Amino acid sequence: MTAPRDRLAGRLQAVGASPTLQVMMEAKALRARGVDVIDFGPGEPDFNTPENIKKAGADAIAADFSHYTETSGIPELRQAIAEHYRGRYGADWGTDEIITGCGGKNVLFLIAMALFEPGDRVAIFAPYWVSFPEQVRLSGAEPVIIPTREADGFTPRARDLEPHAESLRAVILNSPSNPSGATIPPDEVGRLAEFSRATGILLISDETYDAFHYADGPYASFAAHEKSLHDRLLLVNSFSKTYAMTGWRIGYALGPKSIVGAMNKIQSHDATHTAAMAQVAAVEAMRGTQGTVLAMRDEYRRRRDELIPALNRIRGIRCLQPAGAFYAFPNVKGAMQALRCPSSVEFARRLMSEIAVATVPGEAFGVPGYLRLSYALSIERIRAGLDRLRGLLGEAGG
Length: 398
Description:
Blueprint: H1 19-32, E1 38-39, H2 51-62, H3 75-89, E2 98-101, H4 103-115, E3 121-126, H5 131-138, E4 142-147, E5 170-174, H6 186-199, E6 202-206, E7 233-238, E8 251-254, H7 257-268, H8 276-287, H9 291-311, E9 327-328, H10 333-338, H11 344-355, E10 357-358, E11 360-361, E12 371-374, H12 379-393
Parallel strand pairs: 1-10, 3-4, 3-5, 5-6, 6-7
Antiparallel strand pairs: 2-8, 7-8, 9-12, 11-12
Helix pairs in contact: 2-8, 3-8, 4-5, 4-7, 9-12
């Protein structure tokens, strides 16, 4: 019997739609019905793109810079990226070892398509960003989920990779983390780099939130280990969060020429390249004043410093202070028990339906019993959301 011609590819059975985007759409639907939703769900800055960057993009459009560019990105942008990492970390990536794409998510997908195939196993620490395991599955490879521990600050540890070392093709890391805000400290970055050197396992580091790092001392980037990891390190970043450019869709990767070349080949048959005028705007973002980035970081820190203590004063909620990004990742198992919710999915639904507070349940990140709350919303909305949570659950110890 002939299979129906409208059948879907079997690979889709292994993946689901993005849970974070689903929450965004549910909140949007409620707002359309006139409900005042306090939305802790989106992973998007609530700031606008800085004026100097918008002007550079507008000037590019006015100058008719709206035609095809090189698939890997315009030379000026790749040069600006190379200079950034050379100046900050002493890394020595050349422009032929850099590719730009349609956001960090697209660049990570290009990596998965270029590197992974059936039979490969790829380590991912949980809690993880929702697209990591799904992209690995779409490539035909197997994600190997390595749990981190709340008591250890959700920090990825090289020692937890060692039992899997002989079977792994790669490990994907994310620091600061979406969803936990955990940041890998410098000594652990060193241990993970040594693990990669010793085993030959590829190390893919998603550093999209590197500008929003609140702990003492400089941010620990794997770029500092570029020289010793040159043939097995891929570093991914994006303009979306650092410069509030989510809609401009521009991310990038730095890595070995052979892998970047493979990504370039794939992109040439996919998006071709990201928007020409967005690339010009990204050059201005990287080379222009960084004052707005620092201002955003300081505002996120101020919100974090109010949100986390307040969450810990609500019955059934326990929350670590995140060291980076703009997410809180509270343990809500006590609150789930109080409301007789069997899962954090059900708990998040109750929050949405009963008090119009949107969150993302921990199941989306591989860790049930938790919620992700973005604090990329105004302090007034954060306070209003806390009031609603407190009204539903009560005060801790009350």
